[in-house]
């Protein structure tokens, strides 16, 4: 197959547990780009939280963020396409969050908003503070998440975390039933809530086709439930060794975990290293 695009999830896939990109992956992806491949990040993260990785890879492609809720162009610092939550949907969701005592991080505009600093938020803020100031994502503590949801332009998603995963699962079912919103697991203790119809696979397909290509020409790498739509549609869907069983079940190929050089091996096998042809 003549693959043209490499689509990469970040957490649990391209990134190690220390939030680093392996040197082998960097080299392989750089060589693939030199040979003509397009590399695109497809992540659950907000676009303000992927600067270090986007810059390390030296990309010029837009990034698919918040599980497909938006396509962001770093060259023009603008949203190219998006399907955000509506203000009334956000209000109803926040009311449910308060009723069931579920804490959330709201991804909106150019930052992430929270009312209560959960362990996940504290850890993420500590990671952010370790970055150069120009790469730090924006976190905003607010007195009322409901009020904040009414004072932003676009809400990309809500990220819910809780050590009680059964509680999260039950709450997600309530949200889907009562509000008709989409719930996807992006980590073992995180459920993301967004506009129905959004997915990594859908947004990636739209962008790939805008490039005059097809999903059959895509190699996609992922590890969690929010990667299912992307891997299913790709010409070659690659699951990490640390992926959940459901992702492994639909993958065309399973490689080592995110601390090993499996991504580099796959990329090197399918793209010519132009330095070898000089």
From TrEMBL:
PROSITE patterns: COF_1, COF_2. This is Pyridoxal phosphate phosphatase YbhA. The keyword Transcription regulation does not apply. SUPFAM superfamilies: HAD-like (SSF56784). GO terms for molecular function: magnesium ion binding; pyridoxal phosphatase activity. Its EC number is 3.1.3.74. GO terms for cellular component: cytosol. CDD domains: HAD_Pase. It is an enzyme of class 3 (hydrolase). Keywords: Hydrolase, Magnesium, Metal-binding. It comes from the Bacteria. It comes from Phytobacter massiliensis. Pfam families: Hydrolase_3. The keyword Magnesium applies.
């Amino acid at each position: 197959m003549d693959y043209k695009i490499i689509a990469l999830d970040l957490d649990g896939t391209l990134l190690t547990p220390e939030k680093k990109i392996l040197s082998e992956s960097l080299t392989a992806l750089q060589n693939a780009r030199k040979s003509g491949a397009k590399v695109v990040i497809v992540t659950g993260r907000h676009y303000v939280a992927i600067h270090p990785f986007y810059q390390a890879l030296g990309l010029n492609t837009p990034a698919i963020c918040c599980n497909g809720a938006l396509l962001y162009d770093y060259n023009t610092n603008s949203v190219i396409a998006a399907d955000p939550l509506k203000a009334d949907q956000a209000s109803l969701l926040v009311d449910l969050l308060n009723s069931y005592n579920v804490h959330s991080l709201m991804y909106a505009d150019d930052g992430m908003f929270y009312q209560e600093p959960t362990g996940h938020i504290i850890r993420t803020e500590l990671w952010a503070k370790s970055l150069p100031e120009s790469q730090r994502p924006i976190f905003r503590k607010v007195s009322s998440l409901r009020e904040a949801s009414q004072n932003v332009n676009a809400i990309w998603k809500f990220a819910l975390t809780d050590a009680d995963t059964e509680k999260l699962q039950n709450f997600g079912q309530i949200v889907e039933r009562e509000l008709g919103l989409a719930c996807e697991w992006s980590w073992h203790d995180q459920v993301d809530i967004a506009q129905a119809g959004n997915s990594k696979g859908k947004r990636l397909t739209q962008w790939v086709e805008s490039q005059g290509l097809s999903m059959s020409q895509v190699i996609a790498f992922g590890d969690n439930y929010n990667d299912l739509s992307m891997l299913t549609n790709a010409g070659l869907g690659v699951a990490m060794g640390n992926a959940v069983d459901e992702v492994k079940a639909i993958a065309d190929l399973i490689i080592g975990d995110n601390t090993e050089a499996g991504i580099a091996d796959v990329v090197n096998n399918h793209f010519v290293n132009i330095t070898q042809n000089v």
